[in-house]
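quick one, 145 residues, struct below
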Amino acid sequence: MKLLIMTILVLLSACQKPNFYDVNGRGYSYANMEEKWLLINYWATWCGPCIKEISEFNGIANDFEDVVVVLGVNFESVDRATNEEHIEKMGIEFPVYAEDPYEHFNVDRPVVLPTTIVISPGGKVHDILVGPQTRETLLAALGLD
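---
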């Protein structure tokens, strides 16, 4: 009986309440990402440089998934269905926040697009990149160049 209770307690403590949700309703915990770099990319469908750089973020998300998590933020406040349309139109292959996370990281909401917030392993703001990024500039910001 003690073993059963201990097993249940261990399993319950392993469950993390989500800190945020993506536009598809999937929950995520920052504790599960604390060993990785986070790239939080702000974009909009009307932003030409944003459109161009999405493929760079898709590549980083796929090629460096062991050390980097790429998350997106639609700068436009739109409903879920419109957000999903925007994500498809932009060709985004990484999760997109349902709610803007700027307050969680204690940073100002961007006023220039594209903007990327770089969070170091452990959860501290490492850098804020304003303007379009390339694979090379992103890897350099992460120290992976």
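Residues 10 and 30 are 20 Å apart (CA to CA).
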